[in-house]
Amino acid sequence: MLKLKVRKIGNSLGVVLPKEAVSRLHAGDGDRLFLIEGPNGAYQLTPYDPAFERKMEKAEEIIGRYRNTLHALAK
Fold it and tell me: Residue 45: beta bridge partners?
């Protein structure tokens, strides 16, 4: 468990992540992180965009459905 302190940054509030947390998130300066609320109300910080993941699942479904057509068009 890591203890974070909320601090005033300009007109906003923020937290500074320790180096080990940034390393485990595979994040760097300027990267986006997503704070996701789980089903039990707990929050999870992740570098992965859940909206992008849903779009990719839909794309894979469409590609699977039209695999032969896409293969023919690729020639």
Answer: 35
